[in-house]
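Record 1 of the preview.
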Amino acid sequence: MAAESLIVPCSNCFRLNRVIATRLAQAGRCGQCKSALLPGQPVALDDATFNTFVGSSDLPVIVDFWAAWCGPCKMMAPQFEAAAKAAGSRALFAKVDTDAAQSVAAQYGIRSIPTLIAFRRGSEIARQSGAMSQSQILQWLATSVR
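->
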């Protein structure tokens, strides 16, 4: 019986990597650039990299839509980073600056920030607006993103 494999995008070079699901937590490395596939921190995405990273991942991708001028976004940033580290191999985390990536923000109808959207293989599976703590983000991940 063949082991199930997952497609996981590299957060550094955005190349797609096939990883055996049972070995995912062992912190595999990208076949091209050798960066960790599960970096434990959010990756910055823009209009050019969003679809490759979010659209191809078999792991859920939690995206924080934010802006530099947003007070609640600044307050939530360290909480989001801590949640990314704590989540381990359950999900990938990414950030999209809505001022710099206006096409992506418009595509997903971002009207208030911060907004978290969970994606699986490019499809939106959950959405939550408003600043959250690390524990709230992890709870949302556990209950909304299965």
